[in-house]
Each structure stands twice: as C-alpha cells, then as structure tokens.
Amino acid sequence: MRSYLESTARERLQHVLDAGSFEEFIGPAQRIVSPHLAQLNAPVAFDDGVAVGRATLDGQPVFAAAQEGGFMGGAVGEVHGAKLTGLLRRALAERPAAVLLLLETGGVRLHEANAGLIAVSEVMRAVLDVREAGIPVLVLVGGSNGAFGGMGIVARCANAIVMSEEARLAMSGPEVIETANGVEEFDSRDRALVWRTTGGKHRYLLGDCQAIVPDTVAAFRAAAIATLAALGAGPAALSVDALEREHAMLAERIARFGAMRDPLEIWRALGVPAPERVPLLEIDAFIAAAAAHRLGES
Amino acid sequence: METLQYRFERGDKRLASAARLVGVVSSGNLEVLIEAAPLGGACTIDVTTAATGFGAIWGAVMHDFQQRWQLADVRIAINDMGATPAVVSLRLDQAVATMLGEA
After folding, report:
1. 3-state helix, strand, coil in chain A (%, to 5)
2. Quick check: A125 and A78 in contact, CB under 8 A?
3. Which among A27, A42, A46 is the nearest to B31, CB-wise?
4. CATH architecture label of A9-169+209-236
5. Which pLDDT score is estimated for A297?
6. Under DSSP, is residue A48 helix (H, G, I), strand (E, B) or coil?
7. pLDDT for res A284
8. Taking the complete model, does pTM exceed 0.80, yes or no?
9. ipTM score of the complex?
10. Chain B residues touching A43 at Cβ < 8 A
C-alpha cells in the first residue's frame, strides 16, 4: 500500500486521481520560478513547489492542486500562490465537478513576505468564489508538514477536509506558539502533545475535518470520492446561516473547553471511551469509538 | 548558489516524450527537468546548486551519465540542494527512465 505521507506531490496527484488523467497547467518546463528566491540567492524549483491542473476523479472532471512539502515546507510564495489562485479562477470558467487541494504547507513563504501574504489571501477569496459558483472545494491533508498558517485557514474555507491521523491542521505551528508564549504554554518538542493538539484524530473529534483515513493514497482517493458524493447533496456555497452556525459552534467550544490544558481532557468531556487510548487506536476502531461523541457534521 | 553548464556532443540516443520532472528541491535532494530539444545532436545540462565549489565532481558525474546514455538533442536542467554524487546519478537515470516509460 503506497503511503500518502511518503509520496511526493506529483505522486499523490498520480494516484489519488484517475490514472494518467492529470493534465498540468503551467508545468515545470515553462520554468515559472520564484523571482524572490533568486534575489536571495536561494534555490528555486521549476514548479515553485506546487502542481496544478485538470484531471478526472472516478470519471468526473475535477481541478486539482498539490503542494510539495519537500520544497521549503510547501510554503506559499508569489508564484506558488498565483498558480493556486489561477487554478481556482479557471474553475469558475470551466466548471469542473469539484476542486481538490492536496495541501502540505507551513503557510506563507517568509522569504517572500508581503507577496506571500497577499497570495494566501487571494487563494482564500478564490476558494470562496468557487464555492459561491456552486463548485465544491475539497481539501486533503496527509503530508508530514501538515497544513498551517494562512493555508490552514484556506483549508477551513473549503467544503470539507479529509485527513489522516499523521496529518496536522492548525493556524500557528508548535514552534511558533512556543516562541511567542513560552514552553510552559506549549512544548513543541513533545510530539505526542503536538499530535494530540493538531493531529487528524483531534480534528475529527472536534468536527474540523469531515473524514479520517489510514495513511494510504488509496484511502485518500476513496474518501475523496465518497466525500464529494456526500457534498453533492447540499449547496457548495457558504451561506450566512452556515457562517453563523460555525460562529455559534466555536463560541460553544470555547465555553466548554476553553479552560482545559490538554486535548485529552476535551476527549474525556466529549464522552469518548478510554480517551487515553485514542492515540493508539487503528483508524476503523477510532471512527467507531468517536461516532457517538464527535462534534460537527460528517 | 553556483551555476554550471555542460554540453556533450556526438550522442545518438534521442528521447521522444514530453518534458518530465523527477525529484524535489529539498535538503540533500535535487530536481531534474528533462526534455527533447533541437541542439544539433548535443545533450546540455544546466546545474544550479546551493553547494558551491564542487564543479570538478559535478563534471565527473555528468561525464559518467553521458557515457551511460549517449543522449542527443536532450536538454536537462537541475536545481540542487546539496545532493550527493550518488543521488545525482540516480536522479539523472530516473529522469531518462521516465522519458523512456520505464519508471
């Protein structure tokens, strides 16, 4: 079974989408590289760390993008962000059945500073425009760098997120929190704590992701097909009602869990049986244990 | 960063398929972009590497590569982040194998 975590961005596209169907836009042969990195005398990549294009998924036409976590942690520079935004805007014109974003990223590429920040905000707006046009956006997170920073927000702007247990999703990364607030607040070297706080199982229990899968490319593919089929029943656009429900859910979450120090306490409060065993459970057993207790809509 | 350029004449193996990219620009790794191009029968390799001062070793690895494959009308471009010579050789062979539909 091919690991999603260990695959490159291009391998993920090849195996999540229908075999041989991916047709890249602005491929590496065009050499559209970062102008900023060259000025800083830093290595560039011919695709600036992201592949975008069209394909089919289970026979349905889709657009897809995959970030390469190996290149600068999947961070978003000006060109990288423009490729994501361009893909989403092209989706408005060509109307695929869905847009898939295979995210693996630390967020903004700090070398590119404001250009990277603007790029991420443009991606967010473009995701919401695509949803407004009735086209669902699905995010897959399963790389070792997780999805952090502004791209963590992008992920939560999508219709649904599929994660593996190994995946992480959050705003500020562990080192950032420790640097800003001290090791007493968050010990970034405590890997078990980092995964309890940002990992796939916690996100699934809180309802921040809609599906959790074992770390195989085949499992991500199957979950992407199933999740898109489930999304097909409802509206893709973000409504004011949905936004207000989300705000109410978040307010309730802070009220219920805001004083707690560790996700373990949250799992216990949710009524998950044997919460200390949660990190050890295989995915099927975990989903069964979580079923009656997790928040959010599946 | 250091830029190195190589040109080998008199190869005889041409590659037909569209441009391919193998590898990733990450620590100790490199990406290889390979494509067919009208170069008067030559094979050119442009290297951009983060590790400066290793021109002689690059030259030897590139020479061995061309000895193995005898490529003609092929353009190769490399972005390197400090890959070892063995990794560079394997990536180059992977690039050719991908073009030949063997990878």
Report:
1. 50, 15, 35
2. no
3. A46
4. Alpha-Beta Complex (3.90)
5. 65
6. coil
7. 97
8. yes
9. 0.92
10. 1, 25, 48, 50, 79-81
